[in-house]
Amino acid sequence: MIFFGKRSNVVDTLKTFWHSCPGCQMNVPFNVHFIYSYIHLYFIFGLITSHQYVETCPNCLRRQVVPKEALPLEIRQGRYANITHQFGLAALAGFIILMVLINAIK
Predict the structure, then answer these.
(1) How far is Cα 2 from Cα 6, in angstroms, rounded to an integer?
(2) ∠ CA(11), CA(13), CA(15), 5° rounding?
(3) Can you tell me the mean pLDDT for 74-101?
(4) Residues 36-58 pLDDT 10s
(5) Where are the transmembrane segments (predicted)?
(6) What total of structural domains would you count in the chain?
(7) Largest Cα–Cα distance of the chain, in whole Å?
(8) Which range marks the domain in which residue 29 is found?
(9) Who's near 39: CB < 8 A, 6+ residues apart?
(10) DSSP result, 72-97
């Protein structure tokens, strides 16, 4: 039996991004979240299919999607996705190819 599917995950970047909120018109530290969707095989081997950064105002709780280029450098350069969700399916494919090559040599 093969378990596969599609899931999503929300990761708090633990970084703040100060600017003026369009909703409450205050200069506040926005909480930045990294939201991504991934496909998986056996809940371990995954591949990210989409991702986005979302900021939330702590006063009015307004959320908006932020382009990656508009974020500070320390937020953009962080790796927030689980490594098995990001490279798991590629690692499994590489392992299978390696096993086929080893068996072909013998």
Answers:
(1) 14
(2) 155
(3) 86
(4) 999 988 878 888 899 999 988 88
(5) 35-54, 87-105
(6) 1
(7) 70
(8) 4-105
(9) 4, 5, 6, 46, 47, 49, 89
(10) -HHHHT---S-HHHHHHHHHHHHHHH
